[in-house]
Amino acid sequence: MISKTEAAIGMSRKWDAREAGREVAETAIKNLSRPPDFFLLFSTIHYEKYGGFEEFLDGVWDVLPKETPLVGGTVTGFMNNYGCFSRGASALAVSNPSMDIAVGVGKNTKRNPHRAARQCADMIQNRLKESPYKNKFLLNFISGPVMPSIPGLGQKKYIRSGFISKFALQALGLSQALVQKGLGREDEIFEKTVQQLPDYQMILGTSMDDYKGMKNYQFFNDKILTNAVVNLGVATDLDLDVCTTHGMKATDLHFTITKLGAGNHAICKINNKPAVPELLQLLHWPEGFLTEETMSHTILYYPISLKRHGREVPIVMPVIMKDSIVVPCIIDDGEVSILTVSGKNLINAVKENLQFFDRIQPEFGLFSACMTILQTLGHKTNIIQEELHNYFKDKSFLLFYSAGEGTYSKEKDITYANMSINTAIFGHDITKEKI
Amino acid sequence: MRDDPIAHVLDDLMRLDDIYACIVARRNMISVMPSSEGFKPEVNQIWDVIKRAMDDVFTVIGEYSGAGLSEMEFRLQDYEVLFYVFPDTENALVAIVPALANKGLLEVEIENARREILKIMNNPTQKPNSQKKDDEVYVTA
Q: Chain A within 8 Å of B37 (Cβ-Cβ)?
């Protein structure tokens, strides 16, 4: 079969923002014989210091044909056909005559996530509702968490003081509403987007910086935004599917959440006792074991599986405030399992994920993965790149690392997870061709 | 040194905030240093002791590189020193980073640098990607 789909990866490792913008566009479109129908653009935060993102995007538009739909933003790192990178820029440009495209944007995601989601989804719906192509896809890309700075302490993952923790927990909602600093609320936006566009297959990703959680930017055509959600909607005759895997394994450790706080974003009590001491006891960790320094080497390897609207949600516990655990999404109280994860399990999760697409002959693929996987595996993340390269061979793929990711399809419903690999593959279902 | 392509790879690494110093070295010898930027001032006060500790690590690298030793690291005070060994040699790319850096992200770029240096070592006439013109850099995906 002769493919009418053309997909190409753009890539730049230049430091200067303008030059990098030009190069990422040039390297992508020179491999297409037609102008791209859409351009997904991801970069690391470094260009903020080397010319700024206005310059970066101007560089892209020096080269990219005008009116090309463009969305994207800053990410912790990325991998593509050329390797794995925690610095630089990459793009996925796709051209296909049998494809309709729409882009959408919604603002003030941390202040009013539902409104932002609705605005953004409406733009997609209005543009694609008349499309003759039955397979619909959406990339839901949302501004990620920005850690509020606590006076006198700065941005901390671990707060020992009970007084400051109490204040910080109460101020979390206020901070989100007033200065839009705090959790990304991507789970709420994703749920709302699914409600608006239930027939789409979706992949969720979040915009981040270099793992610090201090700032992030979103790209929407020629605009640089903060605290925004940007959508790419695709209607196509290509077959496509989405899948989430995470590789986390259940342990025999369980507990019950008995008190939530901070708008159901904090676990205050488990088994009717203050959450953190009780968790330490369950894990047989000594008092004082968790510190700012040990957090990333310890508790991130023990995610928890809890419930949200009856769905299993595996998440990490990224912030400890004295006796309370702040979690990245809204959760329900009730039974929780403690999970564990290893580098080997993470790599197996990629293999398991790709097996799901055995029936698809790929044209191109898009992935979102948890930035903690990048941080955990370090340069061994190249093993994942080799797996993807073996699957895609000469076809283009782009994976970006974010902080809060998931997928949705009508068959599988919403999967929101941390430490997960989320895949959307476009291609040809070989089982259909045999029929 | 100024036109050494390996030095340009090190220059690229040095631009990352949390790379305080990087060199290509072996025991008792620094082979290549960054060309355009010196080490960051943070390491000046501790350089002498780090250098002595590094030489001891290179004894181990010399002993086990042939057996497949590919990486080593140690922490000294508030710094971590990472050794990315060039296979079957006594040489390594050495990077000094703060102990609380996001090491996973740095490792990705240190490994990219090691791969690029290896390519240059195997093909000494090759320019590093940062020195190439745009149309020389990437192949079709």
A: no
Comparing CA positions, the residue from A163, A159, A147 lying closest to residue A321 is: A159
Q: Please give, rounded to a whole number of angstroms, the shortest distance from the CA of B110 to a CA of chain A.
A: 8
Residue B89, CA atoms < 13 Å, CB-side half-sphere: 15
CB < 8 Å from A in window 76-135 of B:
99-100, 102-112, 115, 129-130, 134-135
For chains A and B, CB pairs below 8 A equal: 79
Q: Tell me the per-residue pLDDT of A118-144, one tens digit each, with 9 for 90 and over.
A: 999 999 999 999 999 999 999 999 999
Q: Are A375 and B130 an interchain contact pair (Cβ–Cβ within 8 Å)? A: no
Helices (H) and strands (E) in chain B, counts: 4, 5
For residue A35 the two structure tokens come to 């102008």
Buried b (16+ CB within 10 A) or exposed e, A151-179: eeeeebbbbeeeebbbebbebbeebbeee
Most distant CA pair in chain B, distance = 47
Domains contained in chain B, CATH given: 5-136 (3.30.450.30)
- Asked if A378 lies within 8 A of B108 by C-beta distance, the reply is yes
Q: Does residue B116 carry a pLDDT above 70? A: yes
CA pair distance B13, B23, nearest whole angstrom: 10
What does the angle CA A415 – CA A417 – CA A421 come to, to the nearest 5 degrees? 90
CB contact under 8 A, B134 and A26: yes
On whether any CB of chain B is under 8 Å from the CB of A369, the answer is: no
Give which of B80, B85, B108 to mutate to test A binding, by max A Cβ within 10 Å: B108
Using a 10 angstrom Cβ sphere, with 0-12 exposed, 13-18 middle and 19 or more buried, the burial of residue B78 is: exposed
Residue type, A101: I
Buried b vs exposed e over A16-53: b needs ≥16 C-beta within 10 Å? bbbbbbbbbbbbbbebeeeebbbbbbbbbbbbbebbeb
The answer to whether A85 and A8 are in contact (CB under 8 A) is no
- Of residues A156 and B63, more confidence is placed in B63
- Considering the entire predicted model, what is its pTM? 0.93
ipTM of the complex: 0.91
Q: What is the DSSP string of A225-277?
A: ESSEEEEEEEEESSEEEEEEE---EEEEEEEEEEEEETTTTEEEEETTEEHHH
